[in-house]
């Protein structure tokens, strides 16, 4: 089966972009979705799942990929209460299976999800993009949380992984994580996955962990999936075809040392879901997200696409973040998730992909 192009959609009433808008982007088959009002640890109920999936299917898409079912902090910390939360996670997997879900994207980052210092940073051409100012993020987690929360309040918009309920308890969370070393976090990760693998085999659903974003420790919190060596370790730790990656090119390439195309070549069979995002680096360690065009950033988008294509990638792929273009501005666009730049990104990726298909076919004919 060839790769399937996807588009992340936040759901009716939670996303200004409609499924009808997405229908007009050539090549999109999969809607990447979630129940965004669920707290980590809650069971996703069949009637709640049905409502969203039926809407997606009625619009002519499949709902094969969920991003994300978030993992409760107690699982990451390794508290006795993790048993119930793991049970709940397993129940959610079972509840998703009858709806045709094939891949669950999640992350295993302590406390914070993706982290940026500016959500609307001018790129220089009139558009804006997510930006990371390295020296700002290192200092104060509360300042960071307050900044992201200010968008939540101002625009009535919630961000996955930045639930106000959790952010209100930052001191408590940091206290709980104080003895969680990197090795302890790896061990808790293994414990979680080993409990999940039987139900993954039973249901055919792959667990696909997202890279840590950015790929280094922040605020003294350990981060695990940051480079090729840690990805190797992760895949070996639970060496199971249902233990997979959401390989995020932009997350990894925030560290310019990472060569994403090489990782794709090495592990294409264990990548269930590909996030394609371009990043531009600055000499002081700051980075800005960029258009998908190869030469607009430093990620090596064409090399990555070629590695997927030539490796026979048959998973799901989506443009990750995009810039905010034209009339997209704070208040009318979800940061990183506007319509236009992601649509342009899809056309860029499909352009490259179609050409590679054509080259291959012609080669085979000779
Ligand atoms: Mn990503």
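-> sequence recovered:
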């Amino acid at each position: 089966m060839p790769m399937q192009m996807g588009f992340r959609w936040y759901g009716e009433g939670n996303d200004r972009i409609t499924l009808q808008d997405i229908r007009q982007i050539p090549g999109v088959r999969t809607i990447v979705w979630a129940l965004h009002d669920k707290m980590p640890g809650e069971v996703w109920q069949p009637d709640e799942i049905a409502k969203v999936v039926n809407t997606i299917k009625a619009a002519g898409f499949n709902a094969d990929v969920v991003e994300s079912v978030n993992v409760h902090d107690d699982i990451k910390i390794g508290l006795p209460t993790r048993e119930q939360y793991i049970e709940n996670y397993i129940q959610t997997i079972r509840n998703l299976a009858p709806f045709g879900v094939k891949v669950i994207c999640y992350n295993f980052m302590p406390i914070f999800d993706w982290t940026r210092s500016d959500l609307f940073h001018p790129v220089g051409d009139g558009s804006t993009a997510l930006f990371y100012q390295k020296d700002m993020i290192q200092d104060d987690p509360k300042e960071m949380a307050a900044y992201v929360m200010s968008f939540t309040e101002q625009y009535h918009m919630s961000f996955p992984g930045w639930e106000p309920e959790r952010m209100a308890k930052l001191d408590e969370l940091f206290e709980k994580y104080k003895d969680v070393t990197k090795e302890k976090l790896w061990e808790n990760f293994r414990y979680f996955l080993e409990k999940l693998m039987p139900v993954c085999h039973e249901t055919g659903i792959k667990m696909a962990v997202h890279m840590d974003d950015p790929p280094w420790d922040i605020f003294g919190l350990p981060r695990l999936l940051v480079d090729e060596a840690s990805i190797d370790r992760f895949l070996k730790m639970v060496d199971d075809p249902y233990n997979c990656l959401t390989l995020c090119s932009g997350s990894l390439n925030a560290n310019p040392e990472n060569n994403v195309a090489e990782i794709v070549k090495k592990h294409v069979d264990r990548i269930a879901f590909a996030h394609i995002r371009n990043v531009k680096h600055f000499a002081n360690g700051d980075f800005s997200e960029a258009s998908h065009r190869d030469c607009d950033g430093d990620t090596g988008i064409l090399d990555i696409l070629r590695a997927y294509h030539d490796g026979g990638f048959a998973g799901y792929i989506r443009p990750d973040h995009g810039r905010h273009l034209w009339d997209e501005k704070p208040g009318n666009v979800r940061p990183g998730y506007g319509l236009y730049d992601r649509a342009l990104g899809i056309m860029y990726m499909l352009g490259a992909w179609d050409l590679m298909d054509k080259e291959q076919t012609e080669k085979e004919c000779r």
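Residues 210, 248, 251, 275, 320 surround manganese (II) ion (CB under 6 Å).
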